[in-house]
Amino acid sequence: MSNFEHQQVRLRSGRTLAYLEFGSAQGAPILYCHGTPSSRVEGYLTMPTDAVAALNARVIIPDRPGMGRSDFLVGRRIVDWPSDVVELTDALGIDTFAVLGSSGGAPFALACAALIPGRVRVVGVVGAVAPVDAPSVRGGGSRIAGRLASYAPALVRALTRLQLFAVRSEGVRRQTANAFPEPDRTLFQRADIRDGFIACFEEACRNGTRGAVWEQHLLGQPWGFDLREIRVPALLWQGERDGNVSSAGARYLANTIPGCVATFYPDEGHLSLVLNHRREMLRELIQRLQ
């Protein structure tokens, strides 16, 4: 497993929170909530420094507890994340900032918007999962996976370890790429993108699979806050050909979050959406942040 760069802060609880920064140190601050199971190294794939710096942005990507190099937090909830974000941004000397959440990171970004509105100026979500208690996703994969992680965590940890071992095979990596719908399938034919995507998963499980499995459990439960109470400007981007999360869930989020400005792309998938449109997403966040 590669030794990716990281920085870290020591939280008041004594836990270590690891993170990476991309872009310009003087740029507009954007706190990025990575997907799941993933880690701060997602930034190498989706937020490369040259592209981010060109927009005069400063993207900070922390490993959530139990992922990457951040310490596990027993019993953590989605609504606990904003307090970690406050401590991190305080340590970095950042007062107000934008939050961007990708895929399984979206609930954590939205929790920040709901619970620390004095710090978050604008929130964006891309390829976002929806709450399991939303009408559009009831009975869906997130709920099933969440229940399995809740009631049989040892089994899910074992399956995750098996998956982690399997993706180190070049043949399995190619098969994984072929499982995605277009246009993501074509992107995953590129070794740099395929390997970068898998590196996010491998780094998430650097210290074991417990953090990844617990987060799967969290995404299969109610989030613990009311989307209708979000009062900061909200932006949403969704690919209609996304094979990971449903457009129906994205429409639920867009219709529930007050004043949410949503953009749907008929020809984009889960990863292609970020890779092809990250500049315009960051630009919109920066404009609203300033």
Structural descriptors:
43% helix; Rossmann fold; globular; alpha/beta; 290 residues; 17% strand; 8-stranded mixed beta sheet; 8 strands
* Sheet with the most strands, sense and barrel status: 8 strands, mixed
Q: Please give the CATH architecture.
A: 3-Layer(aba) Sandwich
What is the global morphology?
globular
Terminal CA distance reads 39 Å
Low-confidence stretches: none
Please write the string of helix (H) and strand (E) elements. Answer: EEEHHEHEHEHHHHHHEHEH
CATH class: Alpha Beta
Question: Into which percent range does the helicity of residues fall?
Answer: 40-55%
- CATH fold-level assignment: Rossmann fold
- Tally of contiguous helical segments: 12
Strand order of the largest sheet: 1-2-4-3-5-6-7-8
Number of strands: 8
Quaternary class: single chain
What do the pLDDT scores average to? 89
Find the CATH superfamily: Alpha/Beta hydrolase fold, catalytic domain
| Number of structural domains | 1
Radius of gyration (CA) equals 17 Å
Write up this protein.
The chain has one domain (7-289): Rossmann fold (3-Layer(aba) Sandwich), CATH 3.40.50.1820. The protein is built from twelve helices and eight strands. The protein has helices at 42-46, 49-53, 81-91, 106-115, 141-151, 153-166, 170-178, 184-188, 191-204, 210-219, 247-256, 270-289, and strands at 7-10, 16-23, 28-33, 57-62, 97-102, 120-126, 234-239, 261-265. Helix 5 crosses helix 6, helix 5 packs across helix 10 and helix 6 crosses helix 10.
